[in-house]
Automatic annotation (TrEMBL):
SMART domains, sorted: ANK (SM00248)
Keyword Zinc-finger: yes
Primary role: May be involved in the trafficking of signaling proteins to the cilia.
Domain MYND-type: 312-349
Matching Pfam families: Ank_2 (PF12796), zf-MYND (PF01753)
Aminoacyl-tRNA synthetase in keyword set: no
InterPro entries reported in the protein's UniProt record: Ankyrin-MYND_dom_contain_2, Ankyrin_rpt, Ankyrin_rpt-contain_sf, Znf_MYND
Cellular component GO terms held in the UniProt record: cilium
UniProt name for this protein: Ankyrin repeat and MYND domain-containing protein 2
GO MF: zinc ion binding
Subcellular location field: Cell projection, Cilium
Secretion signal, residue range per the UniProt entry: 1-20
C-alpha cells in the first residue's frame, strides 16, 4: 500500500472530514484506493458509521459497488453491519446493488439480519430508487404521454419508500398531497404500481417482496380512488372505516379484511411469498394474532413483531409516545392520530382502564410477596451460617409455602428460574433452597 493511500485511510478511519476533503482535492489521491484487505475508504467509513465521511467520499466519486474485498464484502454490507440506517440508505441511493453476495453467499440484507441489524434489513428490502420510478415519467416507445405525470413521482415515491404498511398511514400520505388525492391521478399511479409488480415477477432475478409491496400499494390506492368517487369527504370516511373497531374489543375488522383481500388478490398465484402469506393468515380467525398487517409487514420489511418498539395505534408509525390519558393502554404519534381514533376507541377505553387498574393492583400484590420472600431468604441465610443445614418442621412448612409462592411467581417474573421439586420423603435443606433460589 502506498503512503498516500495509507494517509487517506487513516484520515477516514479517524473521521476527520475536513482533512479528508483537503486530501481528496489533491490530484494524486484516489478515492477508490484499496487497503491490504481490499477495502476502500468508503467501506471503512460505512463500517465505522461515519455518515458525513460517506457523503464526502461519494461526492468525490467513491465507487459504491467496488467489489475487491478479500471476502467479497461491499460498502452496502458494511453499512448494514454498522446498523446505521442513514448510511445504508445513502449507499442504496448512490446505486448500491442489493443482490451481490459475499464469499459465504450472503447478500447485504442477509448479513445485516445475521447480526441483528433489522432496521437496516428493512431499509434494504424496501429500497426502490427514484430513477426506477422516473422511468415511467418519460414517454416510452409510441406513447404520447408518460404513464406517470412527473409531478406525481415525488409523492408516489414517498409512499413506496415508507416501511410502515399500515393502510391508515398510506391513506394519510395520499390525503396530504392534493395532486395525488384525485381519482385520475390515483388510477395512473395504480397502473404504474401494477407494471412494476409485473416487472419484479418477470425479471430474471425475481423480487417477490417488492412485487408484493407494489401490489399492496396499488390496492390501497385503488381503495382511495373508489372512496373518492363515492364520497365528498376527502378520504376521511376511508380512514374511519379502517380504524373502526368491533364493539367487543376494538379490533379493526374492516382493516383486517381489507388486507387479507389485498393478499388474496395478488395476481401471481405461483409466487412462493404469496403461498407463505396465505398459509400464515388463512388459519387465523379474524381478531386473533397474528394480524394480516403484521404478517404482511414481516414478509415485506423484515420487521419482526411489534413488540420492542412503540407503534401508533392509529397509523402504525414507530416511536409513538403519547398515551391515552384515561386508559393509558394505547399510544399515538400526536393529537391528530388520537383524535382520529377516538370515535372508536371511546367504546373500549373504559374497559381498558379497568383492565389496567386490575393489572396494577396485581403487580403491587406481587411486589409485596417478593419483599416477603426476600425477607425469608435473608433469615434462612442467617440460620444457615449459624447452624447446620437441617431445618425444623415449622421452617419446612414455611419453605413449602415459599416454594408454592415462587412457583406461581415463576411464571411472571423469573421464567428462567428452575425450582427443584422436592421429594416428600427427603425434606429440603436450607442449602438446597438457597442454591435453587439463587437470590
Ligand atoms: Zn400516528
Ligand atoms: Zn383510552
Amino acid at each position: 500500500m502506498c503512503k498516500v493511500t495509507a494517509v487517506v485511510l487513516i484520515v477516514v478511519f479517524l473521521g476527520n472530514v475536513q482533512e479528508a476533503s483537503r486530501l481528496l482535492g489533491c490530484k494524486d489521491v484516489r478515492v477508490n484506493c484499496l487497503d491490504e484487505y481490499g477495502m476502500t475508504p468508503l467501506m471503512h467509513a460505512a463500517y465505522k458509521g461515519k455518515a458525513d465521511m460517506c457523503k464526502l467520499l461519494l461526492q468525490h466519486g467513491a465507487d459504491v459497488n467496488c467489489n475487491e474485498h478479500e471476502h467479497g464484502y461491499t460498502a452496502l454490507m458494511f453499512a448494514g453491519l454498522s446498523g446505521k440506517t442513514d448510511i445504508t440508505w445513502m449507499m442504496l441511493d448512490a446505486g448500491a446493488e442489493t443482490d451481490v453476495v459475499n464469499s459465504v453467499g450472503r447478500t447485504a440484507a442477509q448479513m445485516a439480519a445475521f447480526v441483528g441489524q433489522h432496521d437496516c434489513v428493512t431499509v434494504i428490502n424496501n429500497f426502490f430508487s427514484r430513477a426506477r420510478l422516473d422511468y415511467y415519467t418519460k414517454p416510452q416507445g409510441l406513447e404520447k404521454e408518460p404513464k406517470l405525470p412527473p409531478k406525481l413521482a415525488g409523492p408516489l415515491h414517498k409512499i413506496i419508500m415508507s416501511t410502515n404498511l399500515n393502510p391508515v398511514k398510506m391513506v394519510m400520505l395520499v390525503k396530504e398531497n392534493p395532486l395525488l388525492a384525485e381519482v385520475e391521478a390515483l388510477d395512473k399511479c395504480r397502473r404504474v404500481m401494477e407494471l412494476i409488480c409485473e416487472k419484479c415477477i418477470k425479471q430474471q432475478d425475481m423480487n417477490e417482496v417488492l412485487a408484493m409491496k407494489m401490489h399492496y400499494i396499488s390496492c390501497v390506492l385503488g381503495k382511495c380512488a373508489s372512496f373518492l368517487k363515492d364520497r365528498e369527504d376527502k378520504l376521511d370516511g376511508l380512514i374511519k372505516s379502517l380504524l373502526k373497531g368491533r364493539d367487543s374489543d376494538g379490533f379493526p375488522m374492516y382493516q383486517e379484511k381489507f388486507i387479507r383481500e389485498c393478499i388474496r388478490k395478488f395476481p401471481y398465484c405461483d409466487a412462493t411469498l404469496l403461498q407463505q402469506l396465505v398459509r400464515s393468515v388463512a388459519p387465523v380467525e379474524i381478531g386473533n394474532d397474528p394480524t394480516a398487517l403484521s404478517v404482511l409487514t414481516q414478509a415485506i420489511t423484515g420487521q419482526v413483531g411489534f413488540m420492542d418498539a412503540e407503534f401508533c395505534t392509529s397509523c402504525g408509525e414507530k416511536g409513538a409516545e403519547k398515551r391515552c390519558s384515561i386508559c393509558k393502554m394505547v399510544i399515538y404519534c400526536n393529537q391528530t392520530c388520537q383524535k382520529m381514533h377516538w370515535f372508536t376507541h371511546k367504546k373500549v377505553c373504559k374497559n381498558l382502564q379497568e383492565l389496567r387498574e386490575k393489572q396494577d393492583t396485581e403487580s403491587a400484590k406481587l411486589r409485596m410477596q417478593q419483599n416477603k420472600v426476600g425477607l425469608w431468604c435473608r433469615c434462612l441465610r442467617k440460620k444457615q451460617q449459624e447452624t447446620e443445614e437441617t431445618i425444623t418442621e415449622s421452617e419446612c412448612s414455611l419453605m413449602t409455602d415459599l416454594l408454592h409462592l415462587l412457583k406461581g411467581w415463576n411464571n411472571y417474573i423469573y421464567p428462567g428460574m428452575v425450582l427443584v421439586t422436592c421429594d416428600a420423603n427427603s425434606p429440603p435443606t436450607v442449602k438446597h433452597f438457597l442454591t435453587n433460589l439463587a437470590l
